[in-house]
């Protein structure tokens, strides 16, 4: 019997395996079961997964959550059959990975390269319908148009070249293609990276009406709007739970508080056990020493009786020691999944005047083509300001003009003289080379750079890798760490949270709240902007 949504407990749970009925596709609920999964990449000496077990149903809207580098994209590749592994993965229907990828080699629609739409097997200005034909030869126009309408996109985009579409339009067109197919389980990897706030809202509403997908996103608001279950890659285990991210976070915080209380109690018990073991050991040694004592009333001490008594005392000491070691082992098992957001530090410079940047009826142009409409804002020292607007309204262009792009403009733009600016670009995919060299080229103390990356949950094994081998999230963390360690009057960040995990976003928000650096940023994560108290400046198209 099919289990109703209301029948699931709102706690951690695991279901029994259910096979996929032959010929029925995903019209029937199936279950993906992962048992004793262990995996590492060839040539690597650290396992991504080790003896992992979990189950998910194929009709869920399931969010996949975890720190950068914990293996979210790898897990999708494993479900799609991309890698060899030890253990068992069963019940997996046909899978399609998003974002799609076009390559020069044979096309494989089961998985792709995360982070964008790579068009390398032909002219970059191919028509959008031709791109869809290449990705899905069996696609049907009316179905794609139906999905585009649900996503709020005019189907006329299909008659334009793919390269002429904005990043948000490309994402929505390919999502429409993805959901126009049938009887497939969808692996959706960070679809919000190219979407503005309005686009994220529309896409969340769209996904909430769908089912049968595993979704990676680091946007809390977006996740809460569109998933009904979460699959969380915690530090030492994988948790499956009904509900959204906020519900999981609330339960996780309660669980962490309980474990912290147990940990404090256990520390006290261990302290008492250590003292008891020490005293018992001392008593045993003291009794043992009396075997070689002086005569008492002319009689020699009964060494056998004394030895027996000392042995009993020593046995008590050993038992106490074993209890203490068992308690220590239990203590070390506590808090193993505690997501601690270690405190970071920021050292902003103080400018000698209050006003750092001011725009008055500022319009920018590429040649004769207008890039953004007139905009007015004033950025004062200590303020955090975010430019808000749809894709293509010129937000990033304004940041580049402040940095000295030299575009033709109308109106006024004032940038304080001698301003030290720390900049994080939107795209960091090009980063390569040694991490220490990366820090050295920017004049950043290498030990502080590595320490900051550790606080952002970089494992030490990542320090040995070339940056080209890091995930997109890890590259963005390296860029953010370099920015944070650069002493500046103004921090300009262009979509800094793309690919950054939820827990690191919490750390960054706490950092900004504490040190209040002067910031001008473009960011579509409304939860983050609310947490840092950023003033938003709207830019209309």
Question: Quick summary of this structure?
Answer:
This protein has 541 residues and is α/β, with parallel strands linked by helices.
What topology emerges from the helices and strands here?
Layout: E1 31-39, E2 49-57, E3 61-66, H1 72-79, E4 86-90, E5 95-98, H2 128-135, H3 141-150, H4 167-180, E6 185-189, H5 197-208, E7 213-216, H6 220-226, E8 229-233, E9 238-242, H7 245-289, H8 303-333, E10 355-366, E11 369-380, E12 384-388, H9 395-402, E13 408-415, E14 421-424, H10 435-441, H11 446-455, H12 472-484, E15 490-494, H13 502-515, E16 519-522, H14 526-532, E17 535-538
Parallel strand pairs: 3-7, 3-8, 5-6, 6-7, 12-16, 12-17, 14-15, 15-16
Antiparallel strand pairs: 1-2, 1-4, 8-9, 10-11, 10-13
Helix pairs in contact: 3-4, 5-6, 7-8, 13-14
Please, could you describe this protein's structure?
The chain is of the alpha/beta class and 541 residues long. It has 14 helices and 17 strands. The chain has helices at 72-79, 128-135, 141-150, 167-180, 197-208, 220-226, 245-289, 303-333, 395-402, 435-441, 446-455, 472-484, 502-515, 526-532, and strands at residues 31-39, 49-57, 61-66, 86-90, 95-98, 185-189, 213-216, 229-233, 238-242, 355-366, 369-380, 384-388, 408-415, 421-424, 490-494, 519-522, 535-538. The strands form four sheets. Strands 5-6-7-3-8-9 form a six-stranded mixed β-sheet, with helices on both faces. Helix 5 packs parallel to helix 6. The longest helix has 45 residues, at 245-289.
């Amino acid at each position: 019997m099919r289990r109703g949504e209301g029948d699931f407990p709102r706690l951690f749970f695991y279901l029994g395996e259910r096979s996929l009925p032959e010929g029925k596709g995903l019209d029937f609920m199936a279950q993906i079961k992962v048992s004793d999964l262990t995996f590492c990449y060839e040539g690597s000496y650290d396992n991504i997964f080790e003896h992992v077990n979990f189950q998910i149903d194929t009709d869920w809207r399931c969010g996949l959550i975890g720190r950068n580098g914990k293996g979210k994209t790898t897990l999708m590749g494993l479900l799609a059959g991309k890698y060899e592994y030890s253990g068992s993965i069963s019940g997996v229907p046909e899978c399609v990975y998003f974002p799609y990828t076009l390559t020069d080699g044979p096309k494989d629609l089961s998985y792709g390269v995360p982070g964008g739409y790579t068009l390398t097997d032909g002219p970059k200005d191919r028509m959008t319908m031709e791109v869809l034909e290449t990705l899905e030869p069996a696609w049907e126009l009316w179905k794609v148009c139906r999905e585009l309408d649900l996503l709020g996109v005019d189907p006329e985009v299909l008659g334009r070249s793919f390269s002429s579409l904005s990043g948000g339009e490309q994402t929505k067109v390919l999502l429409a293609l993805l959901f126009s197919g049938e009887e497939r389980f969808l692996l959706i990897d960070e679809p919000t990276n190219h979407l503005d706030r309005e686009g994220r809202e529309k896409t969340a509403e769209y996904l909430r009406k769908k089912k049968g997908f595993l979704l990676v996103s680091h946007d809390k608001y977006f996740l809460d709007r569109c998933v009904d279950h979460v699959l969380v890659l915690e530090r030492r285990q994988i948790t499956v739970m009904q509900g959204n991210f906020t519900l999981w976070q609330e339960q996780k915080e309660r669980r962490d508080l309980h474990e912290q209380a147990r940990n404090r109690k256990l520390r006290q018990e261990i302290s008492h056990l250590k003292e008891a073991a020490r005293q018992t050991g001392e008593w045993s040694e003291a009794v043992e020493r009396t075997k070689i004592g002086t005569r008492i009333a002319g009689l020699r001490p009964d060494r056998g009786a004394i030895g027996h008594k000392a042995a009993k005392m020593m046995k008590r000491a050993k038992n106490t020691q074993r209890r203490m070691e068992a308690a220590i082992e239990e203590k070390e098992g506590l808090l193993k999944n505690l997501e601690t957001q270690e405190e970071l530090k920021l050292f902003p410079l103080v400018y000698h005047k209050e006003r750092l940047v001011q725009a008055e009826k500022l319009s920018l142009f590429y040649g004769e083509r207008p890039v953004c409409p007139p905009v007015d804002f004033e950025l004062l020292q200590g303020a955090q300001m975010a430019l808000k607007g749809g894709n293509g309204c010129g937000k990033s262009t304004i940041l580049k003009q402040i940095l000295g792009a030299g575009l033709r403009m109308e109106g006024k733009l004032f940038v304080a003289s001698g301003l030290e600016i720390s900049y994080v670009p939107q795209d960091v995919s090009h980063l390569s080379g040694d991490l220490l060299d990366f820090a050295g080229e920017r004049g950043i103390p290498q030990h502080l750079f590595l320490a900051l990356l550790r606080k952002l949950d970089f494992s030490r094994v990542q320090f040995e890798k070339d940056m080209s081998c890091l995930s997109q999230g890890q590259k963005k963390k390296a860029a953010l760490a370099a920015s944070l360690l650069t002493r500046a009057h103004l921090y300009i960040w262009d979509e800094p949270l793309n690919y950054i995990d939820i827990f690191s976003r919490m750390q960054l928000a706490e950092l900004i709240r504490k040190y209040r650096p002067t910031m001008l940023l473009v960011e579509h994560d409304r939860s983050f902007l609310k947490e840092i108290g950023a003033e938003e400046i709207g830019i209309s198209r």
